[in-house]
Amino acid sequence: MKLLAQKMMHRRLATRFIYWLTRVRVPFMKNWMIGKFIREYKVEMDDYVVRDAFSHPTFNSFFVRAIRPECRPFPADERVIGSPADGTIFDFGTIRRDQRFQVKRFEYHLPELLNHRSPWSRTFEGGEYAIIYLAPANYHRIHMPVTGTLMDEHYIPGDFFSVNARTVHHIPHVFARNERLLTVFDTPFGKMALILVGALFVAGIETVWRHSYQDVRKGVKTDFPDITLERGQEMGRFNMGSTVILLFEPGRIRWGDISSDQQIRMGQPIAQASEGD
Fold first, then answer.
1. Catalytic: 143?
2. What is the pLDDT of residues 115-147, one digit of tens each?
């Protein structure tokens, strides 16, 4: 137990250091980090609003760079659901009636993921889920797959395990153990949850309605706004990457022609509304 606490403390300290480092404005330091990142991950800047990577004031500004909308179009058919992010589909499918679902080698229990006190577990019981991993080189803003009105948000404290293909295969229930933000929207296709999962070097989840969750982390009770976000509109971002989990109520959507471990772009079709919606 003591060793576990020490490891958690070390991850938190590392996360805080990286948070500071990625906001350094000293030109030679931030330009060195940006240049190294571009070379390491072969980042192409043509799709982005600001094409000169070194004009960003900090590494974090470069990391969460805005994309040109025409480079990530959503389907014209409003009944087609687009991916909320660039990334890799770790897994997708149907949540069983016992509120369990499979991600690679491990079985997850919905109340663990959403917080045991959350009333939303029963809402999504028997529904659909998809998990999209954002690698470092991916575009790191999250967009609405469908139009929705915010109904609830809940910050869930947790660890900062790295989230990638290796850890998902080897660390049990990593998505239910890491820091995460649960958001629930009312949409034309029923209730939809977007869960933003933090990771090592990621303790910087933002939404368009809340720039920082520091007060929430400290236990301060805050209200969320009455806000409706349109399909394709930005809803949040990761200041250093991680994972998005998408949930829909049962019977409201059916998955399209997608597969596990598939690379995907924001706006690319992943599902469509079920008949009758």
1. yes
2. 877 889 999 999 999 999 998 889 999 999 999
How many H helices and E strands in the chain?
A: 8, 16
Q: What is the rounded CA–CA span in Å between residue 183 and residue 129? A: 14
86: annotated active-site residue: yes
Least confident among 6-20, 33-47, 170-184, 191-205: 6-20
| Catalytic residue (one of 61, 83, 118, 242) | 242
How far is Cα 74 from Cα 89, in angstroms, rounded to an integer?
18
In whole angstroms, give the CA distance from residue 116 to residue 213.
Answer: 21
Alpha carbons 227 and 225: distance in angstroms, whole number: 6
| CB of 9 closer than 8 Å to CB of 154 | no
Q: Residue 52: helix, strand or coil by DSSP?
A: coil
Closest CA to 134 of 164, 104, 179, 170: 164
Within 8 A by CB and 6+ apart from 71, the residues are: 47
- Label residue 168 exposed, middle or buried (CB < 10 Å: 0-12, 13-18, 19+): buried
pTM summary value: 0.88
> Contact 82/75 with Cβ under 8 angstroms?
yes
**Amino acid identity, residue 258?**
I
- Residue 105 CA, chain-centre distance (Å), reads 21
For the chain, report the end-to-end CA distance as a whole number of angstroms: 50
CA neighbours closer than 13 Å in the CB half-sphere of residue 266: 26
Residue 69 CA to residue 193 CA, distance in Å, equals 23
Q: Which of 86, 118, 121, 140 is catalytic?
A: 86
- Give catalytic status of residue 223 as yes or no: no
3-state SS of the chain: helix, strand, coil percent to 5?
Answer: 25, 30, 45
